[in-house]
Design goal:
Layout (H helix, E strand, L loop, with lengths): L1 H22 L12 H10 L15 H5 L16 H4 L3 H7 L21 H5 L6 H6 L35 H4 L8 H4 L2 H4 L10 H4 L7
Length: 211
């Protein structure tokens, strides 16, 4: 009887030891390791969905830094949200269609959208004061010596397309660049005035009148 009691005690003791070992917390080496590598890859390859509330600074740091650069016009508009000027929501959504979370090197210049002049005029009404302020500006001087006031562009009715309505404020006024309007003044002109003159196409002799 005494022998059976000893054997029973030994069995109970072994079971107790096994249960205690099983209940011990796992060591760090035994714990499952999270697959952070695959998570990072999934995050980087995830599509980026542009919204008006998106943080543009994430992918466009240079444009963001221009708000604190006194050489850039953006520094005078530091309290203006990006979407205020870049209001082409449909165009911006399309422009970011193939962008992923890994594409943090954003474009430096607008390629698929534009900043409309209406946006600028909503805060800076276009009136006679603009033309007066640039009356002595000679940035638009052609090869014949003709000087054009950038805020009082001529209308060439004989061409049927000489109202300059396609010339935007942003063509000369680069908000996120240290370039001045004078630096950019001739750029939009060259797309039509390819002879280097700011007179009518017919007067310049590069096109023949249909009349």
């Amino acid at each position: 009887m005494k022998k059976k009691a000893i054997i029973l005690a030994m069995v109970v003791g072994c079971m107790l030891i096994v249960s205690l070992v099983a209940c011990q917390p796992k060591q760090a080496s035994e714990m499952p390791v999270a697959d952070t590598g695959s998570q990072e890859v999934e995050t980087e390859t995830a599509d980026f969905a542009w919204t008006p509330e998106a943080n543009c600074e994430t992918c466009h740091p240079n444009s963001s830094n221009s708000y604190t650069d006194s050489a850039c016009a953006a520094s005078q508009h530091a309290d203006v949200a990006c979407i205020t000027c870049h209001d082409d929501a449909e165009g911006l959504e399309k422009a970011h269609k193939k962008v992923t979370m890994a594409d943090t090197d954003g474009a430096e210049k607008l390629k698929k959208t534009k900043v409309s002049s209406e946006v600028c005029i909503s805060c800076h009404p276009l009136d006679d004061t603009h033309a007066s302020a640039t009356a002595d500006v000679t940035a638009l001087t052609d090869k014949l010596g003709n000087v054009v006031n950038p805020h009082d562009l001529p209308v060439f009715e004989d061409t049927g397309r000489g109202t300059h309505e396609k010339v935007l404020c942003a063509d000369c006024h680069k908000m996120h660049s240290s370039e001045t309007p004078e630096d950019n003044a001739t750029t939009p002109c060259k797309s039509c005035h390819h002879q280097g003159t700011y007179v009518s196409c017919y007067s310049a002799g590069c096109h023949e009148s249909s009349e």
